[in-house]
Amino acid sequence: MKFDSPTAVMQFALQQARQGIGYVEPNPAVGSVVVDNELNLLGAGYHEKYGEAHAEINALREAGANARGAILYVTLEPCCHHGKTGPCTEAILQAGIAKVIVAQEDPADWVAGQGIAQLRAAGVPVEVGLLAEEARELNAPFIKLVTRKQPYVIAKWAMTWDGKLATRTGSSQWISGEESRAVVHQLRGRMDGILVGAGTVATDDPLLTARPSGPRVATRIVIDSQANLPVDSQLVKTIDQAPVLLCTSHSAPEHKLHCLREAGVKLWQGTTNDSGRLDWNEVLTELGRRQITNLLVEGGGEIFASLREADALDEVHVFLAPKLVGGTEAVTPMEGTGLATIPQQADLVDVEVMRTGEDIYLKGRIRRA
Question: Phi then psi for 198, rounded to 5 degrees?
């Protein structure tokens, strides 16, 4: 295989990296390619699973002796520290690589340019910045975890064409079709955490598991300041399938906490504001401490609204079903007070529009400065 440009080589490295999503967290998804001076492919690889060989090692192994004097492309700065695996910089130097092209620097404190500096100090030229934006988008969850110590927050909901999550009676099963629900299960299967509010548990009694299972088993997280999670809920009854974490307040009744502990529920208690709600910054920092990289939020409307007000959302996935419900008391995705005026700039960027059966699947990233 021969590439027609350095950009094409890095694009191939990014394709390699995407194969690790869901398997490598809390590590980043990384791809690497080794080519000769004519851009002929000598080896390629990606970080396949947390704790196993990094992308550069797999690419160098495939290239073998041909790596000497070759060029190595990698989507993230090579590591230079001893962790679960040895430093990639040492392997690159031992292989005799003549030049390294990096998409972006690793923002983690334990790398932060040191890998690039080590290679340059050893006489290996390093270029940085080829397809940097694409690389940053790929590893946005990792970047947020290592820089802000919080998970990447993805909101997901299904609604009717007139913008309802449920009818005035709370009926919501099923707004979206089978194809959309299959996509949701795939999404759940690569998450570290799936979060809902106490209202969603009371109304829907959800399982919040991926069916069929995916590469990860997400912790099921309930925001419930008064610990009202029923011990006979599906979440608690299936605790052997996936862990449950209850985020509650210091004022939650001890007898309720005791019953939930006895049932195997993990508990975390945080402070509340004047309205009795948990502080999102505190909650998300705790989830980041637990190494939750990707967090899927599935409702309800107050949860979505409060996350938006806290500027805590990173990405939104919406399944729009061709149904009309109506009703001033019917549930909408964003409750709360809401904005007073329409934003003059789009809130979502990198928007994608797809079809899932009869539904329309929309996803986009929250615009950041």
Answer: -60, -35
Q: Which of 183, 191, 247, 182 is nearest to 217 (CA)?
A: 191
The Cα–Cα gap between 85 and 295 comes to 27
What pLDDT is recorded for position 203? Answer: 86
Q: Are 220 and 234 contacting, i.e. CB atoms less than 8 angstroms apart? A: no
Contact status, residue 22 vs residue 215, Cβ threshold 8 Å: yes
C-alpha dist (Å) from residue 43 to 61, 94, 101, 151: 8, 16, 15, 33
Determine contact, residues 154/317, Cβ cutoff 8 Å. Answer: yes
This prediction's pTM = 0.91
The reply to whether 329 belongs to the active site is no
Low-confidence ranges of the chain (pLDDT < 50): none
Q: Out of 25, 52, 56, 133, pick the active-site residue.
A: 56
Q: What percent of the chain has pLDDT over 90?
A: 82
Report the distance separating Cα 123 and Cα 189, nearest Å. Answer: 43
Pair 130, 100: CB distance under 8 Å: no
